[in-house]
Amino acid sequence: MAVVALQSNSRESLAVAEQALDRTVDSASAQDLQSIGDELYSVLRVLGSERSLRQHLADPTVEQDSRVGLARGLFGQKAGANTVAVLSDVVSARWSRPADLLEALEVLARRALLGVAESNGELDEVEDELFRFGRILDREPELNSLLTDTNNPGDKRAELLRGVLGDKVRPTTASLLEQTVRTPRGRALDLAANDLAELTAARRDRYVAHVKTAVALSDEQERRLTETLTRTYGRQMSLQVELDPELIGGLVVRVGGELIDGSVAGRLAAAQRQLPG
Q1: What residue spans define the domains of the chain?
Q2: pTM
Q3: Can you tell me the distance from the alpha carbon of 242 to that of 252, in angstroms, rounded to the nearest whole number?
Q4: pLDDT, tens digit, 9 for 90 and up, residues 93-141
């Protein structure tokens, strides 16, 4: 099955699920996050092979409690409480089509595994390893094909991958690639590795506050701003500061997709928009 583009309802449901999982990532141990990622991938493989089951779990005409009850009944004894909670949130949401449910599960599984690298402070290294492995596969089309050939059992493909990787990459890198090899979903591994590298870069951006300021900040001001943002977001933040005289005064801070505009120019623009035409 090829990866699909999410439709409107599904995009909204996934965004809510991602925010909930990120709260778990910020508070859970690396071991718990590894379990969540691995178990979500196991659920993904089951639903990927059971068409009627995934249709039922994604069917908005089926009562929400019924969908959640079915998911808990099927996976409650096979997965940990954290994974079951994530899965319950996913199946209780509204999905435009069953394929979107599968896509969401993989997105969340990847985020959980990347949470391990976040906990260990290894996102930079994992991003680099994924990118370099994608380049290797691009130069080795036969290996690329063998690693995602579904005519061979998933265990055999994973064994081949482990032989190629050896001990040359970090555990999170190996885990992400192995789960992709076991669950290729119609993708070539070199492209999947590149996608994972881009996702890792986006995850790393969660820990960077991009600050624009009209005047240079002192060391003490940067320290206080870092402490404030760390308390606000519940994770250690670092600053990337850029001077922008057009702001007149104040700060503009971007963390991931969130923008905090405390600049004079921003307040003036907001006031102007409120004036009657």
Answers
A1: 8-204, 207-274
A2: 0.77
A3: 10
A4: 999 999 999 999 999 999 999 999 999 989 989 999 999 999 999 999 9
